Amino acid sequence: MGANTTTRADGALMPQPAKPRHDAFAATLAGHGLGELRRGAVTTLQVNVGKLCNMACHHCHVEAGPLRTEIMGLDVAQRVLELVRANPRIELVDLTGGAPELNPHFRWLVSEIRALGRRVIDRCNLTVLFEPGQEDTAAFLAEQGVEVVASLPCYSAENVTKQRGKGAFDKSIEGLLQLNALGYGRPGSGLVLDLVYNPVGATLPPAQANLERRYREELAAHFGIVFSRLLTITNLPISRFAHMLDRTGQAAAYQSLLVAHFNPATVAGLMCRSLVSVGWDGRLYDCDFNQMLELPLGGRDAGPTVFDVEPLAALEGRAIATAGHCFGCTAGAGSSCGGAIAGPAPVTT
After folding, report:
1. Which residue has the higher pLDDT, 299 or 165?
2. What mean pLDDT comes out for the span 214-231?
């Protein structure tokens, strides 16, 4: 087991906070004359509504699974809604988990945010659509005009099975067909269906545009599936993926790979510059990855919660907490919750 993790009673690996005094990422920024990473206007609120999930994927940085009990309560969900209402600059509320649909307040929160005229993303693992009680979830998402970002690590059953387990590929395809039947991913429907690719192993994603073409060809030819965009996301050395790297002796090599491919052109487009991450318990973080490392907003010892802030504009211009895992978002073409950021950079020596 890695030195930066401990084990919970339910077997989940809990990462320990990064130590900012050894922040090689901040030093790399300074070495490129980029200065300290600071937040601009906050336009996205990314909300983790809980770590409960019907799956336990090998690459999951949330360490989500069926045994997790962390679920956002109604009091926090109501406060999130109040923040969205009080901050008109928030254009997008990005709901994640776990499987966000398993939160008992998920539909209420979606409906209320959509009633405010804000965009909502549901980060869906597709297989959850076939869990008991979720039979009409796809129809609900379509009715609300929710943008679906669906995890599909590959267009082949073999690679999906490696990451997500036996039977996951068939259910994922069935879920995509269900969404397509409702209009998702079809031109002119207004229903966005983005797919997410994560590498199976300790490698960087291939070029997003090229891989998207291959996804379109394969999914259309074999299943008649269409989608809006493909997003490539780098696996960050956090939680379950970090444990795999430690177990297989690849941790140091993978971190070196990320550092060697640092691309300064990605820094301006990092999602943390326009996003605030909300934990299931209401705590605020600079991004979803910092949330999983329990690295508080700005790196402070006791970060604020949704109950401590009203105007999110007050966070603009503040320093963003960084650590070694941030190289994952700046390697190659870069990586964010919206996919690649820029063109790839040459390997440094």
Report:
1. 299
2. 96
